[in-house]
Structure of GTPase Era:
Amino acid sequence: MFKSGFVTIVGRPNVGKSTLMNYLMGEKLSIVSNKPQTTRNNIQTILTTKEYQIVFVDTPGIHKPKHKLGEYMVNSAKDSMKDVDLVLFLTNPDDEIGRGDKFILESLKNSKAPVFLVLNKVDESTQDRVAKSLMDLSNEFNFKEIIPISALKGKNVDTLLELMVNELPEGPMYYPEDMITDVQERFVVSEIVREKALRCLRDEVPHGIAVDVIQMKQSENGTYHIEVDLICEKDSHKGIIIGKNGQSLKRIGETARYELERFLHTKVNIKIWVKVRKEWRDNQNLLKELGYKKVK
């Protein structure tokens, strides 16, 4: 009997959703950063074995939006809860349930699919805090399963996977067995460059940046020639991104090239241009051009 289904991962920003999905997939398919709100789209990845196929939907963190980009991110996450076979509610141990988690749990009360509580980062907390969080959250919502894990270290992730498979219905293989993601190479390229910028830049810049892949060509010897616009909102941010004598932009380019060569399995030449587009996160036309299609 072959089992298959769609599993969405929801939670506040920076609770480890992308880290969990990347661990399950064994591939770095979703941007991972220690800064919140790094995932901006619902990224679909496919885990296939001889016994099952799980289609994961990694979502942006649900938060109170401050601009049209934020609205897009929250709406994308909410949309992902519809028509799935299982919802993983991911959160971290805390002294009490925060407003963000309560907001998500309230949204999940309308879910037709079973909901698993996945308490992540338990290795970074005390046993007492973990136990209290599990009890408080259990009293707040009727979860089908409760699993404490460490996505970063892989603790209990195999158990989580086994429980997910048990919950899946009998079904077809929705995607070819060798397909691991439904996103295009250009999207992954833009996400890799954005992740490197997030890691290299100061806190005041990252959420105001976007990456637009202008050109991606492969020469006869297999080398990719990539040009991207790194878009920011302020002239002062442009200076920070470029850095003294261009050192910051050079560091972003070098770390991105290394990651891109691992992803594309060939040599990469990359050029990054920094462009200022004031208040682009509230510009509907520009947001759509950058791939945020559901912005209204």
